[in-house]
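User: Structure please.
Assistant: Input sequence and predicted structure:
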Amino acid sequence: MKLLYILILLAISFMIFQACKSQKTQTDGNKAVNTPSDTDNNTRPNPNAELLFLNSKSCRGKCKVYQITVYQSGKADYMGRKNVAKIGEHSLNFTKEELATIEKIFAANDFASLEAEYLSGARDLQGFEIRYKGKNVKFHKMKAPENLKTILEEISGVVNGKVSGN
């Protein structure tokens, strides 16, 4: 009878281990964030998978402060905080053409080759965080290479155009 209980416990432990193993975990700062897998059963892209995350942080001046997450489906979650066209939480939808434009911006500026951080250490400068297809880069403009500044400017243009309805 003890052997039966042990076998049942082992079977349950194995199932729990397999279930936990199938979830991807990304780190966002110091906390872990569970994200959906990029593929659904390895056959097609997961439309709920994050494509782009942009966090434009606060500064001591009139910086635009907002955060946006764009998913592969084209859906997006936007949070406007300060000095932007729309304050608060908003849902957006990007067209396939706009998603293709975003992909071209990152490819043309070799985002994959960038380092994880370009920070100056100054506390009063506006900070940015961009995550594209799982790669995360935190930076201040003054320390960022030109291709990263170009990505920020072009992506910000696409986002701000979408938010303001242009």
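DSSP finds three helices and eleven strands in the chain.
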